[in-house]
Amino acid sequence: MDVSFLGGPQPQHGVGVVAPFDFALDRELWRWVPDEVSLRLTRTPYVPVGVSLDLARMVSEHETLREAVRALSVSEPEVVAYACTSGSFVGGLAGERAMCEVMSTEGEVPSLTTSGALLDALDELGAGRIALVTPYTESVTRALEDYLGEAGVTVTGRAFLGLTRHIWKVPYRSVVDMARQAVVGAADALFISCTNLPTYDVIPQLEAELRMPVLSANQVTMWAALRAVGVHAVGPYQALLLRPDPTPASEVPPVPGDLPSQPEEQEGWT
């Protein structure tokens, strides 16, 4: 059968993703990705440690990053994203910048992290005060607050689950309940941390209920990575994705549960 009339496949923008060994939400990342982009994922090596500050340090060691990016480089991604919040905030602002430099040097492409993408997203929204939701223990949650404080971001309220494993199994209803607990003060936005915590379908519902932008770890990671290649992330009724079109890739500098139906429109705070 002659299939030459089909043409293609069409050229793809390659986005490399370095995820922790226990990452289980590959499909959620893809939901923000338009057809002209292909994700190329790799994982850090397994270590027998639960979710903790120790684990965050292990999965963000520079040699681990080099090896992961080296593997990704074979598929020639245009950008590399480190998809782990705790792994990228555990070393503070300087540690996050060092991670980006290591990945950019090894892969010779722009690189970013979830925690760095979060700060960019908050800046994009003009949000300096946020409510915080995490699945972490108190010590890991406090470390995230320290990172945010170092960047000049105030945490007005928080809720956390205290989990050290199986975070990807948390139902949307638990995420919603935590969000309601966390929004107790005057916040500009809500951030839901951890790339292993499912959030895609819950974001529009929370934005409508809480009347503020809602950011999540996977959302900001994909938003920043796609913007770096000049592509807009897709996702219904998400305030961050309603911003103007991204800068073309050529201009980006190479820096080393059941929920109610979705609302049809959002007003006021967007």
Walkthrough of the structure:
- The chain is an alpha/beta fold and 270 residues long.
- It is built from ten helices and eight strands.
- The chain has a four-stranded parallel beta sheet with strand order 2-1-3-4, sandwiched between helices.
- The termini are far apart.
Brief summary of the model shown:
38% of the residues lie in helices and 15% in strands.
Approximate shape: globular
Our estimate of the beta-strand percent is 15-25%
Biggest beta sheet attributes: 4 strands, parallel
Contiguous low-pLDDT stretches (5 residues minimum) are 248-270
Ends distance: 52 Å
Q: What is the succession of H and E elements?
A: EHEHHEHHEHEHEHEHEH
Number of H- or I-type helical stretches: 10
Sheet/helix structural class: alpha/beta
Total beta strand runs: 8
Helix content: 25-40%
Rounded to the nearest angstrom, the radius of gyration is 18 Å
Mean pLDDT: 91
Strand line-up in the sheet with most strands = 2-1-3-4
Layout of secondary structure:
Layout: E1 13-19, H1 26-31, E2 37-43, H2 53-58, H3 62-73, E3 79-82, H4 85-89, H5 92-107, E4 111-113, H6 114-125, E5 129-134, H7 138-150, E6 154-160, H8 172-182, E7 189-192, H9 202-210, E8 214-216, H10 217-228
Parallel strand pairs: 1-2, 1-3, 3-4, 5-6, 5-7, 7-8
